[in-house]
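Handoff note, outgoing to incoming analyst
You'll be picking up this chain. Sequence as last confirmed:
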Amino acid sequence: MRIGTAEPESTFLTQGLALKAVFERAGIPGPIDVLESPSASIENARRIEAGDLDFGFMAANWIGRALRGEKPFEAPIGLRMAAPMNLGPMYFIARADSSIQTTADLMGKRVSVGPATSGIAQHVHSIMGALGKSFADFTPVYLDLAAGARALANGEIDAQMQCPIPNKVMTALDASVDLRVLPYPDGALDIVLAKNPVYRRAIMRAGALRALKTDVAQPGVVNVLVTHERQPAAKVAEAVAAILANADELGRLNPLFHGIADLWAPLKTQGPKALEFEGVPLHPGALAAYRAAGLLA
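Most recent structure output, in case you need it:
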């Protein structure tokens, strides 16, 4: 089994390693390889289509485009949903000694937005576009999470887009630099959520960072595990069943999985559409696993 994730130290990679541990303990035949994908969601979709991956991590905002063959994808990809992985808040940070107080103050500043082809950069486009802004209104700096964190610590940039929390890069940065999570001006977050239906309101709790004294709402994206329509149903069902049976263990291995059961709970009331983000159907094997677990009629 080959699982596509993202760049080194990324949250997708750490989640993929936790999945590998759970799959191995569940007796899923190996070897189980967790593979890095520098362009994360986009690269994983392409590699799934090419047959290089059996499963891949993606942010839910990309999967519909891949299914329909919309840019940056050259042709439709036969993606199918396997399971939600986590709800990841996306948030801008600045040094606590900065004059930047809210997201409105990012205009004219140097902001690390992730690699140019990354999902993070696309999220910044979506968020800023919803607010009537573009990359022309500030100076985008195309650095991965780790390089962006170093640049922020060194004063080489003014702010950075981070996601989700916790992640290794954020934890290390927070330990060395006093940071501010930038709130949205009144009404701005509601606009972002209304114009990006795939996003959800995510709450970053006080104490999540050393300098975070109160809860702060941010846009969040559901990250998902996807596969291809050609994957054998038995293989997908085995993987999804292992995830369902080991929710607590996944949370112990990686705190990003805390609350994962809340993401599939709506199946009981909404049916399969609860997990068919952006119109991407559940794989028949996933449907079978959810039914066997009593989550679907």
